[in-house]
Design goal:
The protein is 77% helix and 1% strand. The chain has 14 helices and two strands.
């Protein structure tokens, strides 16, 4: 009796197994919801605080709006006004001069310091000293610069007077205000550049240098033929970051010189701030997009130049 009923029970169980297989196949075809639920908070935040403000600012750039009332459509008038404004081009020129005073020299110095620290015994101590200005609040650093370079009571001019030399208007002379401000930017951001380039140096395999030494390459040949070409991508990355930093410069000129003397330190970021304080939001939005396009073009040109050196 048992032998007869067992095959029947097996046959009855077969459809059940087939049904469970079909249900599992349907579950496999059904897309999982968990990944989308995890990504949803980021997407909502990005849409609400990233994409929507950017789209609204683009719309504002074609309008005349002061924060209240109806948006008045003006087309490309804001862009035409900025492109024909001496103040706009003057602020870009000031930022461009600061870029020339900061970025090329900073990359050279930071690379040299990174190479020196790569084999230093007290590397962590030196890194901490270099990073300290970068993590210090900007306003505090700017106040220190005022104390150092004030014409009447600054520590630098007091030292010059002790040497019998006349005081210098470091922050009041248009010819010296930009170099003095560039020195502040160099002091504050060089530590970050050193850390970034040091990380790039440590990513180079040691076997490459060992093979070069076996071939008789000296220290300078190793740096020129191995270190510099392999560091070009890291240098290019920092050039882009440094370009963004310089053209967004606001706190330093605002606190130290307030754009003076005679607008000689009125940077692109400070000029953009003036539109906000005047509640000219349409013109300020157009200024922002023009600045983004120009900074992108400058960064792209710098990266192309550095990449050409890498390919060579």
């Amino acid at each position: 009796m048992t032998l007869l009923t067992a095959p029947r029970a097996a046959r009855k169980a077969e459809p059940a197994r087939g049904g469970s297989t079909a249900s599992r196949a349907r579950r496999r075809r059904r897309p999982p919801l968990a990944p989308y639920l995890f990504v949803a908070p980021f997407l909502l935040i990005f849409l609400g605080f990233g994409l929507y403000p950017m789209a609204f600012a683009l719309q504002l750039s074609f309008t005349n709006w002061r924060g209240a009332g109806v948006l008045e459509w003006v087309g490309f008038d804001n862009y035409i006004y900025l492109l024909t404004s001496e103040d706009f081009w003057g602020s870009l020129a000031n930022s461009g001069v600061l870029w020339l005073l900061v970025i090329p020299g900073q990359v050279i110095v930071a690379l040299a310091v990174a190479v020196a620290l790569a084999k230093a015994r007290l590397r962590n101590l030196f890194i901490a000293a270099l990073v300290a200005p970068f993590v210090t609040p900007l306003v505090a650093m700017a106040q220190v610069w005022i104390v150092l370079f004030d014409r009447d009571f600054g520590a630098v001019n007091l030292g010059l007077r002790d040497l019998g030399l006349p005081p210098v208007g470091w922050l009041t002379d248009p010819a010296l205000a930009k170099p003095t401000l560039a020195l502040l930017v160099l002091w504050r951001t060089t530590g970050y550049a050193v850390i970034l380039l040091l990380a790039g140096l440590q990513s180079i395999p040691g076997q490459v240098y060992e093979a070069a030494r076996l071939d008789g390459a000296g220290a300078w040949t190793q740096f020129w033929r191995i270190t510099l070409p392999l560091m070009m991508r890291t240098v290019s990355f920092y050039v882009v970051i440094g370009t963004l930093t310089v053209f967004q410069l606001f706190a330093e000129p605002y606190v130290v010189t307030d754009g003076g003397p005679f607008n000689s330190t009125r940077t692109a970021g400070l000029y953009l701030y003036d539109h906000i304080t005047n509640s000219d939001l349409g013109l300020g939005s157009a200024n922002s997009f023009l600045l983004v396009i120009m900074v992108f073009a400058l960064s792209l040109a710098a990266v192309r130049i550095l990449r050409s050196r890498e390919d060579a």
